[in-house]
Amino acid sequence: MILIIGYVVIALLAISAMLAATGVNLEARRLQSVADGVADAAANGASFGENAGVGLTDSSVRARSETHLGRTNAHARFQSLSLAGAWAAADGGTAYVVLEARVDPPIVGWFVPSGIPIRVESDARSAMNQ
């Protein structure tokens, strides 16, 4: 009987760990999707008609990233969402974005902690068509 109870406890701990890992993975994928959109908006959000020949700058990438996060209301979808980094490549053609957030797994207890930090990175190149 004690052996059966021990196996049940181990099985329940394994199930809670798998559920937590799956929840964190799904939230990280959702955050990666948002980061891809932010990087794309930062790289291609310029009106090249006015600034022809001018590449991306760190300040323009950060400003466009924050604007896109505000427009999409991403802060409401993720806990403690922050724009950890936003910069342009030296060539002025690629925008890099780093987002951070926290995830609360579905089953939180002494075995699975709450508030697991996640961090994703994305980049996008600006495209200019004639």
Give descriptors for this structure.
130 residues; alpha+beta; 3-stranded antiparallel beta sheet; 3 helices; 47% helix; 23% strand; Flp pilus-assembly TadE/G-like protein
Structure write-up:
It comes from Zhihengliuella halotolerans. This is Flp pilus-assembly TadE/G-like protein. The chain has 130 residues and is an alpha+beta fold. The protein contains three helices and three strands. The chain has helices spanning 2-44, 58-71, 74-77, and strands at residues 79-88, 94-103, 116-125. It starts with a helix and ends in a 5-residue tail after the last strand. Residues 47-53 have low confidence and may be disordered.
Q: How far is the N terminus from the C terminus? A: 76 Å
**Integer-rounded radius of gyration:** 20 Å
Largest beta sheet, briefly?
A: 3 strands, antiparallel
Topology pattern, helix = H, strand = E: HHHEEE
Helix content: 40-55%
Mean pLDDT: 88
Overall 3D form: elongated
Q: State the low-pLDDT regions, or none.
A: 47-53
| Assembly state of the chains shown | single chain
Number of helices: 3
What is the number of E strands? 3
Structural class: alpha+beta
Q: What proportion of the residues form beta strands (DSSP E)? A: 15-25%
Strand order of the largest sheet: 1-2-3
